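Quick one: structure tokens for this chain, please?
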Amino acid sequence: MLARLADRLDLINRSVGALVRWLALFMVLLQFGVVVLRYVYGISFIFLNEGVLYMHAALFMLGAGYTLLVDGHVRVDIFYAKLGTRGRAAIDALGAVIFLLPSLAILLWWSWPSVRNSWSVMEGAISVGGIPASFLLKSLVPAFCVLLAVQGIACLLRDISRLLAPQDATAASDNGTRA
């Protein structure tokens, strides 16, 4: 049951990841256009440069939950690789409960007043001539927190499921997944 709930939570970040991945292509194309305009035609537009900045921020902030989903984050470990399924699940569960979820809660708590104030005044461009929507850029911080927390909870549920599974079931899955 926990694994099924985790799978349903995964759908959120799978959907966001499927949309956000296109920002990488659009960002490269826009950056190419900025370079061509500047070095071939000698003209520059601040709002185009900020467009690259906005897409870059959105790609990484909104894609963080998807990265956790596909286990694409950087992991520096000494012991983790040598552990079995239960050991990895225990470390991952503790990491989520002690570090990930509290950090996201603190970040959300402290960033929310700034985001709320930015929306209340419809905060404008970062630079003169830039995109007049700084409030959207600031909104990426709480979106990052929520999406990463949703994925962190999904991973935690899956880890709890592995820890509660009978020892024979986890040993069988170790044989199939470890090199």
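The helical segments are 2-40, 46-69, 85-120, 134-164, 167-177.
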